[in-house]
Structures are given as structure tokens and as C-alpha cells.
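Homework help board

Subject: predicted structure for assignment chain

Our instructor gave us this sequence and asked us to write out the predicted structure in C-alpha cell form, then describe one feature. I got the C-alpha cells but I'm not sure how to describe them. Can anyone check?
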Amino acid sequence: MDTETKILIIDDEEIVLKSCLRIFKKDNFDIETAVSGEEGLAKIEKGHFDIVITDLKMPGIGGMEVVKNVRANNPEITVIIFTGFASVETAREALKLGVFDYIPKPFTPDELRDVISNAIESRQDISHGKMLDLMAIVSHELKSPVASVHTTADTLYRGYFGKLELNHQKIIESIIRNCQYLEDIIRSYIDLSKMEIDDIESFKKEIDLIKDVIQPVLEIPEYNNNVNNMKIISEFKLIPPIQGDPNLLKIVVTNLLNNAIKYGKPDTAIKIDLYKKSHGILFSIFNEGMGISKDDIENKLFKKFSRIKQKGAGGIKGTGLGLYISRKIIEKHNGKLWVESDSGKWVKFYFSLPEN
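My C-alpha cell output:
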């Protein structure tokens, strides 16, 4: 349960208030009580509450008035109501006003706990959604200026404005590495905001995986002219169309190719294959380099915000989101993403997708 959730319980029956306090005695909620609608509204006006539970039938200001007041003046508060059998119709009316749920009287401890647990989860989902929206907006705003700095630094590094001295080259290399890191963060946060939208309808387009997904990624100049001077070799066998979202699948290919370049051995080849298998379509990407240990594959690799420590990767930064996002995208397409590696030598990522 949430350790910071503040709850106000309004009921004119002391036995109900004491029962609630007893039920939540072992939980880390900050709970206040009020014996009337007037007292409850006064407490709401003075303090901050996440959840308000109010009885409907009370002398003076009744529960419906409390509901209307809270929804009008504190819409961020989640409202729950207590109701007896006689006031079920009123409870339905309250739900139309934006009440989250109702708890029947008499109630069991489990009934009360379940409703509160659902309310807290709902609040966290809404908060998470707002955070992701903000992340996406900020990331989009940062994308262009960071890309501009990266391009300028790369132009300087390649000597288009005159040959640089060795110490100046090292400074520019540092700028380029940090730009790449910022671009990874920006792309990952934009991707993560997309991933939290479960719009399965968007996956029902018929697409050509080569033409609509892989080829556009491989045509990006920075990949063919990459910092590790790694040649990209691709072999595509004829495959049938699939059902998928090309923009989301591009995220997967981009993440896997970025990792192959970042963690690959300079002056070696990245090998990309795509062909039809009995169980569907199989994509793979191979590179020589640091590889990944069995323990890291099993315990860290695909977890959100989890980064593995690899020998020789001290200067390489990452968000810990790329592979998590990639696996989620493939799973949303009813596919599978996995990896094979010989630590310190090579790594090969695969994903499979079903045919139409």
C-alpha cells in the first residue's frame, strides 16, 4: 500500500470510523476522520487529501453535497462513498458525478481494502500517464537543439573547419559522446510514452517489414558512417507481409542497431539477417565486441532502467530503457525478443514475429 496516501473518512457513526481505523491500523496511511459533512469539508479546505470516503446519509450536510463540493473545488481528490441498501440509487447518481466507487454497508475489511487499493492504483496510473506526457513534451523540445549541437561537434571533429589539435579532438569527442547519450535519453522517453498506450488497433496494419521498417533505419547516414567504423552487412530473404505498427517496430530495430554500434568492436561487421521460419519471421543482428554475461541476461538485461556493467564500457552511457521498450513492443506484436552471447566476444539479438 502507498505510504504517502492521505485519507479522510466522513461518517456520523462513530462505530464506522473506529472500524475503519482498526482495519487500516497496520497500513501506513495518514488517516483523519470527521463526524459530519460540515467538519469534513472544513478539513478538506484546510488540508490536503488524496482520498475522501463519505457516508451518503448524514444530518446537516449530506454525502451528496460533500461529493458535489469536492468534485467542484478539489477534482484531484478521489471520492468514495459508503451506502446502505436504501440509497443504492443515490449511489449510482453519485457515480455519475465522478465518484470512484461505493462501499456497501455493512462492509467487510476485505471489501474496504479492495476499494481503497483500486483507488490508489487508479491514482498512480493517472499520475504516471501525466508524467509520461510531460516526458514526451520535454523530450520533443530537446530533440532539435541537441541534434544541432551533435551535428556541429561532428563537423568540427571531422575537420571541415580546419584540422584540430589532439587535445581539441578529445574535447570534441567528449561533446559527441554526451550528445549521443542525451539523444538516447530523448528517444527512450519519447518511446516509453508511446509504449504506455495500449492501442492494439494500431497493430492491425499489413506491412512489409523490410521496406517499411528495416530499410528506413539502415538508410540513416549516422549508422553507415558510425563512430566505430563498423560496416553493416544485411541479408534479407523473401518474407510475407505481417501485421504490425511500422513506427513501433522501427524503435526496436533502431535500439538494437544503436547497441551493436555502441558496444561493438571497432572495424568489424554488424550482420543483420531476416528470413522466414516455420514459426514465423525471424530477425537477427550480430556484432563482435563486449558481449553479455549469462547472469546479466537472466537478471538485468530487459528490465526497466536496469543497466549492466561491462568491461570496456566505462565511457558509454545509457538509459536502461531501450531493451525494455523493445521487448514490450515485440510482445505487443505477439512475438518474442531474446539474446545469445559469448561474453567478451560477441552478441546476437533475435526477434520473431508471427505471419499474417
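Reply (TA_rk): Your C-alpha cells look well-formed. For the description, you could write something like this. The chain is about 45% helix and 20% strand. That's the kind of observation they're looking for.
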